[in-house]
Design brief:
The chain has a single domain (11-116), classed as Jelly Rolls (Sandwich), CATH 2.60.120.10. It contains three helices and eight strands. It has helices at residues 59-64, 85-94, 96-116, and strands at 11-15, 20-22, 30-36, 38-43, 46-52, 56-57, 71-74, 78-84. Helix 2 (85-94) crosses helix 3.
């Protein structure tokens, strides 16, 4: 995914390998863009995806306002741009292609999960 532009004041967070970004069931008040590193997505103790630089995660909880459906852990040291709900909505309004890209990511993930079933 092409990383959308974001403000210099954007919240940049760093995680060390093995550190948890969020846990399944946590409230979802932001999404993340991976700037550097690798993130594992784990559902009910099973790794379902490994995401690398340029990918996004955590967007589902922002969209549907439900708790996190997965745990995200840094597989390697990682640098992430955290985007809260207000900034997410601004990005969608400013750049409709960003919203379409988010939908594309969600659809691709759903298709992959369907294939696993």
């Amino acid at each position: 995914m092409t990383i959308p532009p974001f403000d210099k004041e954007q919240n940049i967070e760093t995680y060390t390998a093995g550190q948890t970004v969020f846990r399944e069931g946590d409230p979802g008040n932001r999404m993340f863009i991976i700037l550097e590193g690798t993130i594992d997505i784990v559902i009910r103790g099973k790794s379902v995806a490994t995401l690398e630089s340029g990918n996004i995660f955590g967007e589902m909880a922002l969209i549907d306002k439900n708790p996190r459906s997965a745990t995200a852990m840094a597989k390697t040291n990682a640098k992430l741009a955290a985007i809260n709900e207000d900034r997410f909505m601004e990005m969608v309004k400013e750049n409709p292609r960003f919203a379409l890209r988010i939908m594309s990511v969600l659809a691709a993930r759903l298709r992959r999960m369907d294939e696993k079933l």
